[in-house]
Amino acid sequence: MKPTVLLAAALLAGAVTQAQASDHGYHSHHGHAHGEMTESRHEVRGIYLGYDAESHRISVAHEEIPQVMAAMRMNLHLAEEVSAPELAEGEPMGFTMVGKAQNGMRWYAESFEALPADTELELPERLREMIGH
After folding, report:
1. For 78, which DSSP code?
2. Which domains does the chain have, with CATH numbers?
3. Can you tell me the distance from the alpha carbon of 100 to that of 75, in angstroms, rounded to the nearest whole number?
């Protein structure tokens, strides 16, 4: 009997945590049916660090996305129909970061825009030192 009670308590705690997380409204999600892909979209600024053709991903150092993630360096997937941005390494950029959740989160980049060279990005000094920009 005790294992059943423990399992029920664990499932209930997970459901409460899930409900609380969805109530915070941190992301704009699309597609809420069970098992359906959900999507979170964020307009982001950062520094373009390069493109890996083999994995079809770009590397960027981006500013903080409030209530979503800290400023960091990330390798972002590009959808099959999305081409790599025509930017030079170290160039400031704006883009849309898309999180697609289904059995975990996978982050994509799209809608690239070159920003003026004198754009002041809010990146921690530690991150700037790490990327050399």
Report:
1. -
2. 27-131 (2.40.50.320)
3. 15
SS3 state at 10: helix
**Cα separation, 38 vs 43, whole angstroms:** 17
pTM for the model = 0.71
Helix ranges, the chain (H): 2-23, 125-131
Residue 7: pLDDT band with limits 50, 70, 90 = very low
Contact 87, 48 (CB under 8 A): yes
Greater confidence (126 vs 24) lies with 126
Structure tokens at 28: 């704009």
Please tell me the distance from the alpha carbon of residue 94 to that of residue 47, in angstroms, as a whole number: 9
- Spatial separation of the C-alpha atoms in residues 115 and 94, rounded to whole Å: 6
**pLDDT for res 133:** 86
